[in-house]
Please model this.
Amino acid sequence: MGQSIHNNPTCCVAITNNYMYDQRVQKVVRYLVSVGYHITIIGRNFPVLRQEDIDSIHPDLHESVSIDLLSLKFSRGWRFYLEFNWKLWRLLRKQKYDVYLANDLDTILGLFHGSTHHAKRIFDAHEWFEEVDELQKKPFVRWIWKTIAHRYIPKFTHCYTVNQWLADTFSTAYSKDFAVVRNIPVKRRLEEALTQAIEEALPKDFILYQGVINSGRGLDKVISAWTNDLPPLVIAGYGDKVDQFKRLAHQQGKSDLIIWLGRITPGLLPSITKRALLGLHLLDTASKNYRYSLANKCFEYMHADLPMLTVKTPIHELLHEKAPYFLMLDDIQPELIAQGIKRCLSAESQQAMRQAANEAKKNFTWANECQQLETMYAL
Model:
């Protein structure tokens, strides 16, 4: 959309994820509108990502948030990234904005070359992109992404990421200061009511996994750990490994123990999360990206007063010092997962962890966290 008819400052937000399910970008967009920006989201042509879908997420921001969808032939691999950035560049050459926000490394080329020289360019590193699990067996592709990172990140006006360890690592690697904006949820005045289908699918007692379903998330180990004496496992999410993990559950005779809800919008998740007995977050820490991440769900479980079972990492240990609402495992082998679940389900653990989460969420708030954005986006 470019220059706003109301003369508000304008910001282009480039994203390859589906905006409908990206809570981090949604929170930043809402913050920017609150300080006077008009936002144009530029994304890919997902089947469910139209202007009316954006309006359903931000019904009160209809006048301030618009979307441009790039029509793409490819949906994955190098052809997708090349086509997305090429079309992003072409679109941005025709429109001018005051601020350009690149979400993750896969939007950085098109956004940088399409942006105007006088404008602010801001980079949000949601993860350690060149260390993601999918690239570990693709050294040449990984080298390309590392080269792009080292060449372009230092040229951005401001950069920020999800935790202090990554900020320090990126600052050293790219000779560029990185601020920290953690994935803390927005406090909702009203939770969305669950659909009848979800209400009927949810058992009275259950254990929850929420989030993306792809490699390195530990779900194969979780499925192998499940037994009849545990509450049902509810999986709220979607990804490229869904069919593979459903087959695994079937092969192991555990299909009746697992409920697959599919992709759930961020507005519905809190209503599901608060009903669970335990939240799972069991990443494969062989990936540096996972080992040094601090995921949305860590704080979503906290804000739902929900105990969490996770794996021990330097980042989780630091969080545990301030907010001991979770149990950390040394490894994610199935037998250890089963033991950890049973420990977390004991009455004593439930009471202590829920109380710790309730206390911690008073200090971990988006109202405090979004203050880090003020200087970066000031014009």
In short: The first helix runs from residue 23 to 34.
